[in-house]
Amino acid sequence: MAMIFQDPLSALHPYYTIGNQIEEAYLVHHKASRREAHKRAIEMLDRVGIPNATRRINQYPHEFSGGMRQRAMIAMSLINEPKLLIADEPTTALDVTVQAQILELMKDLRTAVGAAIVMITHDLGVVADIADDMLVMYAGRAIETGSSSDVFFDASHPYTWGLLRSMPRLDRGRETRLDPIPGSPPSLIRLPSGCPFHPRCPFPEVVGGDRCMTEMPELFDAGPNHLARCFLNPLHRTDVLSEAPAATEVVR
Amino acid sequence: MTASVEAPATVPLLEVTELRKFFPQYTQTLIKRKSAPVRAVDGLTFSVDAGETLGLVGESGCGKSTAGRSVLRLIEPTSGLVKIDGEDITKANTNQMRRMRRDLQMVFQDPIGSLNPRHPIGSIIGAPFAIQKVKPPRGVRAEVQNLMERVGLNPEHYNRYPHEFSGGQRQRIGIARAIALRPKLIVCDEPVSALDVSIQAQVVNLLEDLQAEYDIAYLFIAHDLSVVRHISDRVVVMYLGKMMELADRDTLYAKPMHPYTQALMSAVPVPDPRREGRRERILLSGDLPSPINPPSGCVFHTRCPKYREELGDDDKERCRTEVPLFEQKQPGHFAACHFAEVRTDVAVLTPTGARSAGAPAPAAAYQRSVQSDRGPSEPA
């Protein structure tokens, strides 16, 4: 099990060389000599695409660029061949071109090492690129989970609809307006009663009564292997979506 | 909409010619010596018409923010002309500058760093009135509350402090301050980068509404290509302090010409798993070179996929030695590349019915672009 952090500059120790830090990860888990660890670290740096790894290994984090630091982090996390890799916003601090490099690298390594990846991100584009299954969270709870294509094309929770509709997208004609979710996320100290999304949700009256305000919805089936935490049933959804044309576009 | 290099019939609101900003560097051992400067902005030429939005995109460290600040003289440009309504502001003295600043405002990237934590937001938003000695007819307080209401803040929060607001609200405060004097131009330096997607959409909508209402021109600086496409009329792509490509939005996104723009377009992940699997992705090798010692010839040649894979030795020589001119390749479409060619296969927004496998010949591409001057929209 290993983790990749969002900000590689603060996750790496500025006083130690990159090599030192990667070797340390190896030595903690293996009975190996420094020299072996060193060799292995060079191998890993090479594998994540850092040119001139033998020289680079003796440099400090500040001598690396943002993309290189993230590569070094990935090398460090993969040196023990983990079965599970948790990546917390690994590309958020990077430019799109570098982000594309890192995502390609992670996909390659996923097949090569055979690790499972938990990708934590706010960028739905990244999810579409790399994820097989996805889980949408709101206010500390999973509100929708399913395979990526189910969630993207057959989104079943109003919050997921809102997310998909509020994003400016390169692959769509420019609509005149973005469609934001009103309000802002609730404080986690005093969550709204019932469904935590109800103050920002357009559909409590479709559900009827004050059920959304008083009762926390379970994760209901929205399809095979596809769950959504919402009282709207499939019948409601068809109604709601036929009224809102923009939403049908998202759901197709 | 005429592009900057042609002589426009009317004077554009903002006209920037050959703008340069070099930051001098010093090496100090015994004697302080000047060494090679950081060439942050190296020869920008563009114009912005009244009520228009010009997007400025590029990777971080390419000089976008420096360009935005130099335009307003928040940092002194090294050389070049910046004309507002035909009047050069680079030579203006403090008094003249203050008068002109009334028309020029800025929205900053970091909404917490650009709001004084010790001032209530009423006095922050009202500051432009005090500085410019403008007396609104109904008094400053009424006007500020009016502004707060306009940008979607509760006017009763007049006496609250910046830390009491969320990120999106703070950005609204910055916007209220910028529009207080009804400026003609606002430089928006990554105004939505620090915000969540759902909040980002609210702020983008607000900016668009204000533009329609007060006829404000935006110079919109961002690294997020989707946001820039949404809000801009024309887009400039920068790399290492230089302009790589300039075109109207639909042309640039559907038919990028410069290899760098093409790589940028292909790198943007699209929230659509089916399409994401099909797209070709151009990967750039390596990182941004240092602006202290930029590559010779075309600054992009060290990372250029075209240079690496397609060009012959003679052509490569040309890229290494000769700086490509920023010239008009098609009407209103400028690019700085010796071998610029339209590619439609990398664009996320493909022209209808033209998903060609390879790059089309320049002549054919030109024909096509003349026939369909408006960017096609996505078939459902």
Element-level helix/strand string of chain A: EHHHHHEHEHEEHHHHEEHH
Number of helices of chain B: 13
Shape of chain B: globular
Query: In percent terms, what proportion of residues of chain B is strand?
Result: 15-25%
Q: Averaging pLDDT over every residue of chain A, what do you get?
A: 82
Overall SS class of chain A: alpha/beta
Cα end-to-end separation of chain A: 38 Å
Return the CATH architecture of the largest domain in chain B. 3-Layer(aba) Sandwich
Spatial order of the strands forming the largest sheet of chain B: 6-7-8-3-9-10-12-11
In total, the number of strands of chain B is: 12
Largest sheet of chain B: 8 strands, mixed
Q: Radius of gyration of chain B, Cα only, in angstroms? A: 22 Å
Helix/sheet category of chain B: alpha/beta
CATH architecture of the largest domain in chain A: 3-Layer(aba) Sandwich
Quote the distance from N terminus to C terminus of chain B. Answer: 30 Å
Biggest beta sheet attributes of chain A? 4 strands, antiparallel
Give start-end ranges of low-pLDDT stretches of chain A.
244-252
The quaternary structure here is: heterodimer
